[in-house]
């Protein structure tokens, strides 16, 4: 039987996109307290079912798929450009597909406008009207306002008209930067990307050790999540927990309580580190304390191997740093040499500790791969010292393996500037068995 909380979530999910909801309205419709309605609406916001838009309220939105993460809503555009809404406020939840800069003649620019576009233009009323009629929202630059006719048309078509004090080039750069940042996020492999649709095998805290052993015989696995009757995760149970126990013993008495878990938005790299660090073969995946699946160590390793083979789209800070460095290997020492660029510097013009750790981390893992071709995660890094290194100076990181085993490797990395030792670090790296 669904709880009142779940009934509210189910009700919200069934509402049409663009529908406005309020705590008082939900409480009255479903006969629940305003506190219960408020908590359920907050959870719906966390699940991406609704969005709270300033001066509009809470609106049912279309849940973004992972592949659409690079798309912005018009409400997000308002925040990015520090704008104000002049009309069409009810359409702020809609998604921006592309933007067009209105720097041409009207007839020429309309060839590029389509439904879901954003027209970025100055004080040109004829462009405002034409864009709205083509199904596009309008962003007016330079702090200009719009005519009453344009504002009324925007309200009728539910297409936002936004005004920003920035110039056209600045707002286009801001929007492009926001989309670019999201492309980088899109490349990061999350647990939800490898979760799949299969229903995990589970036990309930009211079942017995005998039920556990039957499930082991059926599935061939030995570790299972344990749920309460309401579907919330309460523990995990493994072979060590039931060893020597009577068949009638309740699982609730022998299970491991408050188990380590991850959410669908946890990165696979973080999940891998957690599994190695804690010695886990299975991780429950929960969302708002409810089990949505499980991932195994093999799932994580396969995903990391697959992700390493994929072409990258967005350039991260790590890409910027390492793109200027070249690798050589000689006499058991791996060298990574390159120039210090402005992006790697502190405000005082020296090599930043963060850029230094990026360089030595890459050198450490690359030299270990000469010994073991496997997935790796840096567990610990000790920075002994880092002397000032100026922009445009050439540096060389020399990495040497101190010790390597089946699960761990230690690497000593030294940074040189024209044969002068300017930095030193010791890194411990975890090996993920395939």
UniProtKB/TrEMBL annotation:
Family matches, as SUPFAM superfamilies: CBS-domain pair (SSF54631), HprK N-terminal domain-like (SSF75138), Thioesterase/thiol ester dehydrase-isomerase (SSF54637), Winged helix' DNA-binding domain (SSF46785)
Q: What Gene3D superfamilies does UniProt report for this protein, alphabetically?
A: 3.90.1280.20, CBS-domain (3.10.580.10), Hotdog Thioesterase (3.10.129.10), HprK N-terminal domain-like (3.40.1390.20), Winged helix-like DNA-binding domain superfamily/Winged helix DNA-binding domain (1.10.10.10)
Write the record's keywords in alphabetical order, separated by commas. CBS domain
Q: Which Pfam families match?
A: 4HBT, CBS, DRTGG
Matching InterPro entries: CBS_dom, CBS_dom_sf, Diverse_CBS-Domain, DRTGG, HotDog_dom_sf, Ser_kin/Pase_Hpr-like_N_sf, Thioestr_dom, WH-like_DNA-bd_sf
Domain CBS spans what residues? 255-310
Q: Which domain of life is it from?
A: Bacteria
Signal peptide range: none
Full protein name: CBS domain-containing protein
> What does the organism's lineage look like at the top?
Bacteria, Bacillati, Bacillota, Bacilli, Bacillales
């Amino acid at each position: 039987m669904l709880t009142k909380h779940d009934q509210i979530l189910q009700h919200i999910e069934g509402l049409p996109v663009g529908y406005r909801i309020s705590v008082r309205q939900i409480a009255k419709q479903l006969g629940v307290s305003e506190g219960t309605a408020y908590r359920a609406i907050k959870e719906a916001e966390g699940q991406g079912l609704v969005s709270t838009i300033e001066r509009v309220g809470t609106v049912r939105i279309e849940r973004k798929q992972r592949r659409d993460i690079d798309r912005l809503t018009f409400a997000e555009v308002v925040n990015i450009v520090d704008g104000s809404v002049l009309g069409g406020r009810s359409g702020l939840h809609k998604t921006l597909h592309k933007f067009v800069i209105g720097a041409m003649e009207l007839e020429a620019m309309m060839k590029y406008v389509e439904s879901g576009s954003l027209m970025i233009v100055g004080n040109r009323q004829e462009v405002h009207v034409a864009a709205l009629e083509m199904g596009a929202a309008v962003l007016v630059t330079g702090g200009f306002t719009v005519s009453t006719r344009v504002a009324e048309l925007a309200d009728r078509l539910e297409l936002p008209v936004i005004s920003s004090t920035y110039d056209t080039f600045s707002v286009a750069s801001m929007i492009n930067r926001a989309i670019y940042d999201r492309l980088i996020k899109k490349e990061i492999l999350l647990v939800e990307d490898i979760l799949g649709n299969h229903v995990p095998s589970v036990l309930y805290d009211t079942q017995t050790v005998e039920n556990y052993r039957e499930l082991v015989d059926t599935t061939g696995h030995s570790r299972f999540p344990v749920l309460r009757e309401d579907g919330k995760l309460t523990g995990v149970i493994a072979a060590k927990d039931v060893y020597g126990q009577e068949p009638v013993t309740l699982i609730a008495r022998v299970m491991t309580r408050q188990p380590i878990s991850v959410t669908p938005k946890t990165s696979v790299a973080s999940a891998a580190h957690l599994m190695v660090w804690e010695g886990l073969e299975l991780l429950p995946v929960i969302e708002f304390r409810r089990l949505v699946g499980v991932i195994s160590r093999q799932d994580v390793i396969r995903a990391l191997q697959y992700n390493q083979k994929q072409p990258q789209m967005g350039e991260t800070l790590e890409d910027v740093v390492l793109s200027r460095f070249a690798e050589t290997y000689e006499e058991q020492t791996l060298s990574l040499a390159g120039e210090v660029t402005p992006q790697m510097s502190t405000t005082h013009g020296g090599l930043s500790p963060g850029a230094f750790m990026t360089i030595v981390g890459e050198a450490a893992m690359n030299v270990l791969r000469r010994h073991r071709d496997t997935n790796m995660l840096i567990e610990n890094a000790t920075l002994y010292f880092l002397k000032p290194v100026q922009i445009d100076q050439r540096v060389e990181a020399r990495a040497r393996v101190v010790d390597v085993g089946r699960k761990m490797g230690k690497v000593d990395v030294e940074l040189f500037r024209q044969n002068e030792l300017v930095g030193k670090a010791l890194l411990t790296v975890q090996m993920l068995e395939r």
